[in-house]
Design a protein that fits this description.
- This protein is mainly β.
- The protein has helices at about 50-60, 135-140, and strands at about 15-20, 25-30, 40, 45, 70, 75-80, 90, 95-100, 105-110, 120.
- The strands form 4 sheets. The chain has a 3-stranded antiparallel beta sheet, with no helix packed on it. It has a 3-stranded antiparallel beta sheet with strand order 4-6-5.
Length: about 170
């Protein structure tokens, strides 16, 4: 199984963390990554939705700066607590990766071939109660720069499937 190591089965390093043109730090391919490759597991403390909601409300850094990944109705991975580089993979409306749920674990997988130097990104499709967030367009504004950018990291529909980032 893939894990949070920076190498693939052959021992070759797949990615490195460095400054991102999208936002803050990002994760970049250091060698070619083939479509279908599980690059990294999203790790962190496994907690309940209730505890994650409380942590979100109490976040001193403000809305939009959390590393929660919803696994199912009962489980959230808090990448900000014991997480790895996967939490630094930025959002893009034209991603080269996607998230994959496998037996309660979350992986980041390449959806196309990725060249060395490319920043890894997936579509966050964030979920929130829009009635409670007046400035959600600013807080969750997308900075990906994709040609067909939708302008937000939020889920375009109101549904909330498992495997969404919050």
């Amino acid at each position: 199984m893939a894990d949070s190591r920076k190498t693939d089965k052959s021992g070759g390093r797949l990615y490195a963390v460095r400054r991102s043109g999208i936002e803050g730090r990002g994760v970049f391919a250091v060698r070619p990554i083939s479509r279908g490759t599980r690059i990294i597991e999203y790790t962190g403390e496994r907690t309940t939705n209730e505890i994650a909601e409380e942590r979100y409300r109490n976040a001193s850094t403000g809305a939009g700066v959390t590393y929660f990944f919803i696994v199912d109705e009962e489980t959230v991975i808090d990448g900000g607590s014991g997480g790895n580089a996967a939490r630094l993979i930025n959002h893009s409306c034209d991603p080269n990766c996607e998230t994959l749920l496998d037996e309660g674990r979350v992986y980041i997988e390449a959806i196309r071939d990725i060249e060395p130097g490319e920043e890894l990104a997936y579509d966050y499709r964030l979920q929130l109660d829009r009635r409670k967030q007046r400035d959600w367009r600013q807080v969750y504004a997308c900075k990906c720069g994709a040609r067909r950018c939708r302008g937000t990291m939020l889920e375009p529909t109101r549904s909330c499937p498992a495997g969404t980032h919050r």
